[in-house]
Automatic annotation (TrEMBL):
Domain of life the protein comes from: Eukaryota
Spans traversing the lipid bilayer: 20-40, 47-70, 76-98
SUPFAM superfamilies: Glycerol-3-phosphate (1)-acyltransferase
Keywords: Acyltransferase, Lipid metabolism, Membrane, Transferase, Transmembrane, Transmembrane helix
The protein, known as: Phospholipid/glycerol acyltransferase domain-containing protein
Gene Ontology biological process: lipid metabolic process
Molecular function, one GO term: acyltransferase activity
Length: 386
């Protein structure tokens, strides 16, 4: 769409913030005839999801608190109840079967088969892309982790002189463009509860005037050492439409988070949703409207038993950032333009290398110039155009 051409990545031509529009291959008359059935199905499944959400709160945030003084029992009960409610929620949404596989850049099956049964545990870090609340539900179902979001300072300095789209050749004459994007300083990482994170789908990372009053960690090392569960980090800081990996936020995944001999594995996971169809809109949710997206994209379907698919790809731990053989400089040297991202910021070596292996795991490209800061401008423009 030409009016959103400012948010088209110049290197890949991808617009990662726009919702994916399903093909219009079905007659509007046929869709209208199925409308009443779609409303009934959506209403019934919405009620079921509401009951599940209430059940989750009662079991996990209520009954499990009885055992909070006995951490092993508390973690076991919390994980069991979370797995039950999240898997049922995924089933109601149409995810009857979720496929997984382990990717290894090293050819051969021996290494993969030896470690395929290992799961993330306390002290481990899971780094993944973020496209939908479905991703969050799956991670909660399989690992019951602590979710972390990067948090930033809300201070904004003056920006350089701006140009309009006409001057930049984008054809969007009414859009003001700044010659450079500024990202606020990283404060740390804030734990987010499951319910809160589902509601934050599509939003921007939290910002504060100073250190927040709520609990947060200055480094990933602190979080991995103090949390009693695996850690999940979304380095993009916000959701995309899944067509590319967004530029990681500056300051995230600093090299100091991966050096010093700390225990635990680093897992790289990528979520891929199937392309939308006329009867199944895209499950990705790049806009901050998760409830509307859930009702009108995932639940509003003409079939009473919808079926959706999700594929989760995991990088083999022998090639992950926790492996002794993981050499960021080598990865950057082998990737086209890999050294460009660290020319001005040597601390970004690990961040860029992890971004490369995440994209390779998902077999997608990266947007070098579009991250959560640019998405803030997109959401502002999107809201004015609605």
């Amino acid at each position: 769409m030409e009016k959103y051409s400012k948010w088209r990545d110049p290197g890949t031509g991808i617009q990662p913030f726009l919702p994916i529009v399903p093909p219009r291959t079905v007659s509007p008359i046929f869709v209208a005839l199925l409308g009443p059935f779609s409303v009934l199905h959506a209403a019934a499944r919405t009620v079921l999801l509401g009951v599940l959400a209430l059940l989750h709160v009662i079991l996990v945030d209520g009954i499990c608190l009885i055992f909070i003084t006995i951490p092993p029992i508390y973690r076991l009960a919390s994980s069991a109840f979370t797995a039950l409610t999240c898997r049922l929620a995924l089933g109601i949404m149409g995810y009857w079967w979720i496929t997984t596989d382990v990717y290894s850049p090293k050819r051969g099956k021996n290494g993969v088969s030896q470690i395929s049964q290992i799961s993330p545990r306390k002290g481990d870090l899971i780094i993944t892309n973020w496209t939908s609340y479905v991703d969050v539900l799956y991670l909660a179902f399989r690992h019951n982790p602590t979710f972390l979001l990067p948090i930033f300072s809300s201070s904004t300095p003056t920006t350089s002189q701006s140009k309009t789209g006409r001057h930049t050749g984008t054809g969007s004459a009414s859009i003001a463009l700044s010659s450079s994007s500024f990202q606020p300083d990283l404060i740390g990482y804030q734990p987010i509860s499951l319910i809160s994170l589902l509601g934050r789908t599509g939003t921007l990372p939290p910002t504060y005037d100073g250190p927040p009053a709520t609990r947060y960690y200055k480094t990933l090392k602190d979080a991995r050492r103090k949390e009693g569960r695996p850690i999940v980090l979304f380095p993009e800081g916000t959701t995309s439409n899944g067509r590319a990996i967004l530029k990681f936020a500056e300051g995230v995944l600093d090299g100091s988070d991966f050096t010093g001999g700390e225990e635990g594995l680093v897992w790289i996971k990528y979520f891929r949703h199937t392309a939308p169809t006329a009867f199944a809109p895209s499950a990705t949710c790049p806009l901050p409207t998760p409830f509307n997206h859930l009702i009108f994209s995932l639940l509003y379907t003409p079939t009473p038993i919808p079926s959706r698919s999700l594929h989760v790809r995991t990088l083999h731990p022998s090639a992950s950032p926790s492996s002794p053989s993981f050499l960021p400089s080598e990865i950057l040297n082998n990737a086209p333009g890999g050294l460009d991202g660290v020319a001005k910021d040597p601390k970004a070596v690990w961040r860029e290398a992890i971004g490369i292996v995440l994209a390779e795991t998902g077999r997608v490209r990266r947007t070098r110039g579009l991250g959560w800061v640019e998405k803030a401008g997109f959401l502002d423009y999107w809201g004015k155009r609605r």
